[in-house]
Amino acid sequence: MGYKEEGKWWVSPSNYAEEVTSKFNFPKKVEFIDTTLRDGEQQPGIILTKEEKIEIAKRLDKAGIQRIEAGTPAVLKADEEAIKEITKLGLKADIYCFVRNMKKDIDLAKECGVDGVIAEILGSEHLLNNGKRWTFEKAVSACIEATSYAHEQGLKVTFFPADGSRADIEFLLKLVGEVYRNGHIDSLALVDTFGVFSPEGAAFRVGQLKAEFPDLPIECHFHDDFGMAVSTTIAGLAAGAEVAHVTVAGVGERAGGAPLEATALSLEAIYGVDTGIDMTQFKELSEFVEKATRTPIHPTRPVVGDKIFLWETGLPSSLWMNVKDVNPLFMLPYHWSMTGHRMPELLLSKKSGKDNVKVWLDKIDETVTEEQFPELLLAVKELSLAEHRTLNEEDFRGLVEKIKA
């Protein structure tokens, strides 16, 4: 891969400079676990039915997601039933569920037929002692018992110490170390529960965990409270972490988590990392999740927004018309087909220029004289300003008819 891939993307050559890439330590294989069905549903107001969860799981699998966190069976019988149905689908993805470090949760997970569990404990001393009001010894004992039991049941175990990003590092290392040595951990989630990592801080903490547990795969579960989740997740991977936790369109608790689409596309195009993800599924997948969650996706949301391949303003519209048949990437960071979008379009507003009007005249199969053209362009601008919006076909037809009358 390079900074310029024909028909795919055109990013900055600086991204691929040896002075930059030599500092990276990406693993040989990066994997994704999508947590839309659990963390995504924790966003206030999002309630997913069993049928919706099953359909989302199918679509995630179609997109090539390597692991799917299917939910928390202890929440409700319906959630347990949804997980059971998902595990029966025969998907290529491994199916995990979220559990507390309790044997009864492990039993539920086993009954659901999942491949593995994500076993949560509060991983910072301040929340364990003050929020949960547990002692360190009680937490360690519970985790050792539950993770060992999960392993005995044939389940893979991702240990999930929440708020690990804010934990005192010695406390976190001690907690993980006790469970790693005396219980069972297949992989360790570094959890930025409150989205407080900087990219540099995330990379540093991944490095600390790798130094202490060199044989333990590290997973990045980072939230987006400062709008940094994509950057921090990629920084963690570049420091050697193997797994990215994501959700479709970034849905999730508070400000959400690392969005699947921007994380995967950035890794591929900006960092040259093969994700194994079929990004052409992104638009359709996000639209289904938007409908299921009843949560509108912002029209300019990176990668999946409805308006990211549209122009209203005169100069970029003219530039696009001049290059679209030569090389679309002269005017785009990545090709629309990569993520399942439609071809770019020109719109009409007070910011528009002559090429916008020409395109729309062709669209409605109308013509005006050379003398009428400036008058039509001015009428477009004035109506858009008066209506405080982009114009539609009915608006434009009316203006053309009035000019030609």
From TrEMBL:
SUPFAM superfamilies: Aldolase (SSF51569). It holds the Pfam family HMGL-like. It comes from the Bacteria. Keywords: Transferase. Residues 30-283 form the Pyruvate carboxyltransferase domain. PANTHER family: HOMOCITRATE SYNTHASE, ISOPROPYLMALATE_HOMOCITRATE_CITRAMALATE SYNTHASE FAMILY PROTEIN. Belongs to the alpha-IPM synthase/homocitrate synthase family. This is Pyruvate carboxyltransferase domain-containing protein. It comes from Enterococcus xiangfangensis. The lineage of its organism: Bacteria, Bacillati, Bacillota, Bacilli, Lactobacillales.
